[in-house]
Amino acid sequence: MKSYTENSRKTITILLSLFAFLWFLPFIYVVINSVKTRKEYNLGEFWDFPKGVSILENYEYINDRIDFMMGFMNSLLYGAIATTLAILFASLAAYAISALNIKGKMFWFMLIYSGTIFPFQMYIIPIFRMYSNVDLYDSKIGLLAVYTALCIPFCLFVLRNYFYSIPKELVESAKMDGASDFKIYVSIFMKMAKAPIAACFLFQFTWVWNDLLFGLTLSKSAEARPIMSSLSLLSGASGTNDVPSALLAAILASIPTFFIFLVLNKSFNYGFPTTSK
Amino acid sequence: MEIVKSKPSSKLSTKSKIEKITPYLYLVPSVILVVIFCIYSDFFSLIVSFTEWDGLNEMKFIGFQNYITMFQDPNFLLSSLNTLIWVVGTLLIPVTIALIFAIAITHVKTQSFFKTVFYLPNALSQTIAGIILTTMLSTYGIPHLLEVMGFESLAKDWLTVPYVNTLIMVVSSGWQGIGLNLILFIVGLNQIPKEPIEAAIMEGAKGIRLYTRVVLPLLKPIMLIVLLMSLVNSFKSFDTIWVMTNGGPFRTSETLAVTMYKEAFVHNQLGYGSAIAMLLSVTVLIISWFLLRDTFKGEE
């Protein structure tokens, strides 16, 4: 009986390893080929080991072609600011809904949470029209506002759940000491919610960073264009036939989400709760 | 649940009125942003879907015409079919295969290694995964490898072959998207209490029967969440298609999300685009309803 389970465990390990190798192959392909020159890639075989490292040339090519650096910085800005603002606004609302004396708590919650229910395809035409009318089309502020608004519902959901778990006694005793509502929000709720706030930040930053739809719809010039829309210009019919440069762009544009991946991967081993948009 | 404030209710001075209103101020920024961007948009889309509008001239109210046109439009019908292929493909790869992998991983010693490898593509966005796999499938990539290996008939640019490219993209997006589901399944499998399983093993259940009879029923709550989440996302597939084929060739690989975008922003048919968005939303809402019903079970 024991040898039976040992054997089947070995078989499973081998099969899984095969699949794991298959899953990992594209990464090897990307790393090997992103440092080649275009000529080397086109004339040689893609499995050949690179003869030299032409990262700088490839980087210059993508920077010229799609304003890579500007897209990268734009997305960092959108990700950092929109996510922070969304967490701030959502935490205020979550605090009001979970701890303050207001009427229709469920109504307010559902009103804000309804933002995640519809697919984003519902929003692009109206927002595009609205932005064209008020001159926010193709502007940084415009994209920041959209990303902030769309991050709020998820953050509200996570933070409200967490806020409900904060012991009432803590709030009561702070009230006895004469703390104002706002003081309690800052010194008890926000202070205790560091972990869920971090989770919101990582998930929502990743979402903003990876967004393609709003970037495509609401920006046109490199000044406002986020990174994924810039990258999408490298692919498809209007794209490039410089494969190594495209692969280098893919690596560089994955750096922020890769770091987030490392953080999350560590927490996943402790059964980190996850939700996706 | 509510924190009762001890306040003298006898005198309704302006001060206590202000105190009553203040808590609502905490809601203001969130409510304003969500109302402007989401709720206004929902109603705007609904109205526009009943009009013919190019975005420049006056809106013309045409009733249900857009919804009727849809079902006579071969592009829309093909796009719906493709969307269904995406949905079925998603049920196969990021759901079923993820479940099989998850079960296999819980049986081996190096759990975290395999978890990391399969989750790794999740560190890339769909756009980036699309770009990487497009270059792999382009002339000097895998088709070239097949040619060298002697399968010359297979050496073509598969992303330009109608219908085949949709299948390739479903697999590609599965490569990128399997990780999260896999992790959720593993977390679920590890949380299952040991007693019922041990009891079943004592009674002689083993192998596949053990899973279909005992383990999977216990995993049902997580399976339901993963299934519904994946279904909702598969209906909205956009990024992968946009970068890999742009819906082509000849609009044969579009999904509803891509068709909607193209009608609205390439062909300037904002009314027709909104109608497609409405249809997509209603479909997604019906599925989400099951998800939400479970999420808020026990609340109010």
How would you describe this structure to a colleague?
The complex is a heterodimer of chains A (277) and B (300). Chain A has 277 residues and is an all-alpha fold. Chain A has a single domain, classed as MetI-like fold (Orthogonal Bundle), CATH 1.10.3720.10. Chain A contains 14 helices and no strands. Chain A starts with a helix and ends in a 9-residue tail after the last helix. With 300 residues, chain B is mostly helical. Chain B has one domain (67-295): MetI-like (MetI-like fold, Orthogonal Bundle). In chain B, 69% of the residues lie in helices and 1% in strands. Chain B has helices spanning 14-25, 28-48, 65-70, 74-105, 111-119, 126-137, 142-148, 164-191, 194-202, 207-235, 239-244, 256-265, 270-295, and strands at residues 51-52, 60-61. A two-stranded antiparallel sheet of chain B has the order 1-2. Chain B starts with 13 loop residues before the first helix and ends in a 5-residue tail after the last helix. At the A-B interface, helix 1, helix 4, helix 5, helix 6 and helix 7 of A face helix 1, helix 2, helix 4, helix 5 and helix 6 of B.
What are the main properties of this structure?
heterodimer; A: mainly alpha; B: 300 residues; MetI-like fold; two-stranded antiparallel sheet; 13 helices; 2 strands
Classify the fold: give the CATH topology of chain A: MetI-like fold
The Cα radius of gyration of chain B reads 25 Å
Strand runs of chain B, count: 2
The CATH H-level homologous superfamily of chain A? MetI-like
Order of helices and strands of chain A: HHHHHHHHHHHHHH
The average pLDDT value of chain B, as a whole number, equals: 87
The N- to C-terminal Cα distance of chain A equals 45 Å
Question: Which consecutive residue ranges of chain B, at least 5 long each, have pLDDT under 50?
Answer: 1-10
Backbone shape of chain B: globular
Order of helices and strands of chain B: HHEEHHHHHHHHHHH
Assembly status: heterodimer
Structural class based on helices, strands and sheet pairing of chain B: mainly alpha
- Rounded to the nearest angstrom, the distance between the terminal CA atoms of chain B is 12 Å
